[in-house]
Sequence to fold (909 residues):
Amino acid sequence: MADRNADRASGGGASLTASLTIDGERVPFAPGETILQVARRAGAWIPTLCYDPRLEPAGACRTCLVEIDGWRRLAPACATPAAADMVVTTRSDRIARHHKTLLSLYMTDHVADRDACETGAPCELHALADRVGAATDWPRMEPVRAGRPDDRNAFIEFRPDRCILCARCTRYCAEVEAVSAITLAGRGSHTTITTADAASLVDTTCEMCGGCIDTCPTGAMTEKIPLREHAPPDRLLDKVRTTCNYCGVGCQLDLNVDRAAHGGRGRVVKVTSPPPGTPPNDGNLCVKGRFAYQFIEHPDRLTRPLVRDAGGSLRETSWEDALARAAAGLRGVADRHGADALGFVSSSRCTMEENYLMQKLARAVFGTNNVHQCAAT
Amino acid sequence: MATDRDKRAEILDRVRALGGLTPGVARQVARDTGVAEAEVFGAASFYHLLAEPDVRVRVCTGLSCELAGAGDVLARARAAGWPVGTCACLAACDRAPAVLHGRDTLAGIRPDDVDRAAGDWRALASSAVPERDWRGDVGPAGAPADRLACDLLGEPDWSGSAFARAAQLGPDAVIAEIDRAGLQGRGGAGFPAAVKWKSVRSQPDGDRFVVLNADEGEPGTFKDRELLLRRPDKVLEGLAIAAAAVGARDVYLYVRGEFGAPWRSLERAIARFAASGALADTRFHLHAGHGAYICGEETALLEALEGKRGMPRLKPPFPTEVGLWGRPTLIHNVETIACVPAIVQRGGDWFRALGKTGPGTKLYCISGHVRRPGTYELPLGVTVDELAAAAGGYVGELRAFSPGGASSGFLPARLRDTPLDFRALADAGSMLGSAGVVVLNDTADVVAAVANQLRFFEAESCGQCAPCRIGTRFLRQALDRFRAGAGRGAALAQVADVAWQMNEGSICGLGQAAPLPLVSALRHFPEEFADG
Ligand code: SF4
Ligand code: SF4
Ligand code: SF4
Ligand code: FES
Fold:
């Protein structure tokens, strides 16, 4: 883990002590870097499908193969360490044929229609197949991968016809979440992604972090809610970067907004995470950040201040009025019983600044140390 | 106390002990070992002997068994309502058709044998080869023992004299003899053994291991079975010599799950040496496979030993540097290691001179259309005609032969003079591989034989990398379409591109070689694929 992060930081701070040649250009690199890392920094185009910078390279999807002088076989750039004076070729007839035939083969085993494929999530495979000119007229595979259609979990759907078995989801679950709720199972063309005994995710150790969805390149692992509620294809959504307000970590997340919904008022249809490498959460989220966004549209949500009338029922009012009523109430208690009769509890959904102000209010304004925040318990 | 590593290594055996992967078993093993439940499930589901607990009888679908009528046996067993399934080559091609019963191979099963069992699969027995610890035909008869490295007909020698001689010589001199012998790996790749020994020996201090690859599964190959049954002394002594030479104490013997009888033979041999104390410095660990051809690939085998899915690792790094549990590891095929005692006893030059076009003798397996299918130890580089002569001659006219298992494709009778050695066969676009020769005569259907092997590769691909996982299936479907009457142009248009991709893109030798049956047949038997 530590090493991997060191790798990822290299090129920025680490010293570039040796160099190799990529497509005729001399490129320096730091010890521990892979060919892929060095080549991408140098601007070379090497496609990948099973690579995720947060994970140990698997070298299994085979898209990133490059030529290395003196090596008879093509080598996976994602998993091959850079070595001094290596001569690497990323563009050649051989590589072009490789990209084309590999992607043609992948497409025989994948949902052919791009729009149909991309319901609910974008598909890197289609994008790549288009880019390398993969054949679309090869005979198609009979589908064999088993799914788990009866999984009653509320959030995560696995669609086996879109899966390319890159194992990003299972490696993510094991390496980043340290949960290992899902696994590659079976063998050969029957290999699929499943849980022990194909149980529902809710009957496993799954934490519903949704990281498997985030890392999946094809939308095979995807969100149930937008699928069920007919979200438009991903490319028609606006992504609005924001900070998760469920806790103090400050994870960055992207609200995916369907601008056309609700007669143009717009609607958040799902939450995705920014690319790995984005601080502080590196593309990771927890169940709340990723899935608990439907409160935005919930009818019970408070969007205006309410105060109780004489009869005790709540009615809408202005902010000025509400604040004045709250201040009067607090002051009244302090006057009658002393400041220590008051206690202030703030929410972990408040920002650090808001929490800071809350304790200032308690200590400096009212003069009590009775202040607490729910994340402290 | 068992370490996490040891507990992980046990999970597959524990699933086996609980009767295979029935619901709840993964959870139970997870509870007992601390390994995540999904990991247990994922690993066990890879191995068909664990993943299909309800199948009790498996009929071999290998080419030689198919030629000998395995299809009828299967049909009869199905009709009888048995819990029957199929499996890949059982390494019993010389006594085809073969059936796996539990973990024992029953050889020479005829459809009548199914009928004789009268509805009870437990009562199945072969009328042709009744014993469970049967041995096949070996030869050549009358060859002098000092011309044979493996000497299958020789009396087992429990004295440990070769090991004692190696101890006298010391590691460097032993490795020098192996080098001088020119011993090449006999599992398929033909890699020089001495290079591996030197590499493991030269690794920095720390644990290192020797691993025996007894996962014999290449269709048409059964020589390791004979060695384990007849000369386990040579195998264990070779392992002990290798361990001492590279500085290892622990030797892991990975024995194919379908090898009940060879397993028992090894158990007896280990006990025998333990009693005599002749190989006292070596600790032998027997480890059962659970049904996956790909675990014959050395790095997949290491994964299996570690209790994981048998998916080959990326190379480099090679096992000699990063092997079992990340430690330097010497892995050899059974036959390679069995050559070692004789080399130590008689010298590298002796071994080298035994061969015709390459160093040493070689255990050739021959099955299909020959009179006495079996295992014959002959000079490296004999031709298929010479081999067939040792096996009593052809049945019918030679039409095609597969020189080294399914991975070697098919060659036409016209190439009958090609020496069966590593180089000449590679030059002919094939390979010696495991030297499991299957002979097809003029009555055989070459296209059906190709289809058989394509089905084999599709079933046995580990599924890790796309070129092989999708490619094996693609080629099998394409040939099915051709056989169903679609013209060559329509059915086989993409074969060249797919085969190219599988060869260039696959991680391991399985995917790289899997197109060869079809590609070689298209090349050498174009008339079989003519439109019309
Ligand atoms: S949601 Fe998180 S914990 Fe659950 S399977 Fe996906 S990656 Fe694993
Ligand atoms: S579900 Fe997605 S991430 Fe997981 S293996 Fe399939 S394609 Fe890869
Ligand atoms: S080539 Fe086939 S068997 Fe080898 S790693 Fe790839 S999928 Fe597995
Ligand atoms: S990205 Fe390198 S093999 Fe998948």
About this structure: Chain B touches chain A through 47 residues (CB under 8 Å). Residues A 48-51, 59-64, 76, 78 surround FE2/S2 (inorganic) cluster (ligand 4) (CB under 6 Å). The two ends of chain B are 69 Å apart (CA to CA).
